[in-house]
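Checklist before submission:
- one chain only
- standard amino acids only
- sequence pasted in full

Submission:
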Amino acid sequence: MALKIRLTRAGAKKRPFYRIVIADSRSPRDGRFIEKIGTYNPMLPHDDPQRVTFDTERMQHWLKVGAQPSDRIAIFLGRAGLRPAPAQRQQTTKQLPKAKAQERAKAAADAAAKAAEAPPAS
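Returned file contents:
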């Protein structure tokens, strides 16, 4: 049986709240789980200590047994110092203008800078 440490969704519509659980990897996201070991409340500020809470002892036990954390749980474990933090993914650049548009914007910025440098004609 492949075990996963993952989040299960709870809470109301537009008010998410998650439980950190140990579950069989084949069970559905909000389905059957083996043990609940913590909570995650994304509605709280980032620096609030109640945002992510979990039983460290039980987390270490399940990691030793071979449970694999999900991506989000791996980030939590990295912040808590229980595992090395996962590598940050590189931000995509799809939203940036294409090469020709960037050249035109640079040329316009250079022209504006030159116009600002030139002494006013009197």
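Reviewer check: The helical segments are 56-65, 71-80, 99-117.
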